[in-house]
C-alpha cells in the first residue's frame, strides 16, 4: 500500500491565524492541507473559496493542498482552485452532470482528480471512471459540518474500495474524512485507508499558545498507524 498520509482539515483551524496554524500543523508532521469547500447549496453550510488557497500558497505553504468540493455545480469553480494552487481536487458525483468530463477538466487544469462518496452514495459511479481517478474519498459522516462522529458502516465500504483498487492495479489513494481521531485511526487504516482527514481531531485541541501543540496528537496518530500491519 501507499504510505500513510495525514491531512488536517482547516475547517477546524483558527481562521484568525490560519497561516500560522497551517505552518504549525505541517511542522508537527502533517502531510496534506485539506480544504472543505461548502456552498450552502449542495450542503447546508458555507465555508471557503479559492482566495484562501491562493493566500496559503502566497504565505509559503508548499505541502499538497487537497480540495474537497461540496458544491453544485462543480465545473465552474475547478479552474479557480487549480489556478490558486490546488494539488488534488475531489468532487461528489451527484454534483456533476457529466462525471467523466469533470474528471477530465481537473486533469486538464493540472491537478489530480478524485471522487467523493457520501455514506449512502453507491460505489457504482466508479464502474466506468476508475482509471481516471487519482483519489477516492469516502465520507464517514454526512457532509456539511465538522465535529461529527464516525459512522461505523464506512469501514465496510472502505474494505470494498480497497479491494477494488488492489484488483485494478492502479495507483489510487483511498482517503477517509469524518470523525477520524487518534483512537480510531488504526481500525480505519486496517479497513484499507491510506489518507486520513482529521479536522477537530487535530485542530480541536486546546489553543494554549504553544506552537508545538499539534505534535502530540499527530505523533499518537502515527504510532497507531504504525501498529497496523500493512
Textual characterization of the structure:
It is a single chain. This protein has eight helices and eight strands. By secondary structure, it is α/β, with parallel strands linked by helices. It is globular and about 50 Å long. α4 (99-108) links the parallel β4 and β5. α2 runs parallel beside α3 (78-84). An eight-stranded parallel beta sheet has the order 1-8-7-6-5-4-3-2. 43% of the residues are buried. The protein has a single domain (5-226), classed as TIM Barrel (Alpha-Beta Barrel), CATH 3.20.20. The longest helix has 15 residues, at 154-168.
How far is the N terminus from the C terminus? 7 Å
Number of helices: 8
Question: In CATH terms, what is the architecture?
Answer: Alpha-Beta Barrel
The number of domains is 1
* Structural category: alpha/beta
Q: Tell me the CATH topology.
A: TIM Barrel
Query: What is the 3D form?
Result: globular
What value does the Rg take, in angstroms? 16 Å
Largest sheet, strands/sense/barrel: 8 strands, parallel
Strand-residue proportion: 15-25%
- The average pLDDT score comes to 93
Please trace the helix and strand order, writing H or E for each element: EHEHEHEHEEHEHEHH
Helix residue percentage: 25-40%
Look at the structure and give the CATH class: Alpha Beta
Q: Please count the beta strands (DSSP E, at least 2 residues each).
A: 8
Strand order of the largest sheet: 1-8-7-6-5-4-3-2
Amino acid at each position: 500500500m501507499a504510505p500513510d498520509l495525514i491531512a488536517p482539515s482547516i475547517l477546524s483551524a483558527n481562521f484568525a491565524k490560519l497561516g500560522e496554524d497551517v505552518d504549525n500543523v505541517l511542522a508537527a508532521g502533517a502531510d496534506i492541507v485539506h480544504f472543505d469547500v461548502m456552498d450552502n447549496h449542495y450542503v447546508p453550510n458555507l465555508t471557503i473559496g479559492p482566495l484562501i488557497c491562493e493566500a496559503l500558497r502566497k504565505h509559503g505553504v508548499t505541502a499538497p493542498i487537497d480540495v474537497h468540493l461540496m458544491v453544485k455545480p462543480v465545473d465552474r469553480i475547478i479552474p479557480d482552485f487549480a489556478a490558486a494552487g490546488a494539488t488534488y481536487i475531489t468532487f461528489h458525483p451527484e454534483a456533476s452532470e457529466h462525471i467523466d468530463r469533470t474528471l477530465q477538466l481537473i486533469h486538464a487544469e493540472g491537478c489530480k482528480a478524485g471522487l467523493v462518496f457520501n455514506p449512502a452514495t453507491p460505489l457504482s459511479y466508479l464502474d466506468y471512471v476508475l482509471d481516471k481517478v487519482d483519489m477516492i474519498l469516502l465520507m464517514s459522516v454526512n457532509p456539511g459540518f465538522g465535529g461529527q462522529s464516525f459512522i461505523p458502516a464506512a469501514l465496510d465500504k472502505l474494505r470494498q474500495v480497497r479491494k477494488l483498487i488492489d484488483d485494478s492495479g492502479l495507483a489510487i489513494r483511498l482517503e477517509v474524512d469524518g470523525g477520524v481521531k487518534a483512537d480510531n485511526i488504526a481500525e480505519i487504516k486496517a479497513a484499507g485507508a491510506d489518507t486520513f482527514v482529521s479536522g477537530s481531531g487535530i485542530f480541536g485541541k486546546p489553543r494554549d499558545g504553544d506552537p508545538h501543540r499539534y505534535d502530540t496528537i499527530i505523533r499518537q496518530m502515527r504510532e497507531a498507524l504504525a501498529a497496523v500491519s500493512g
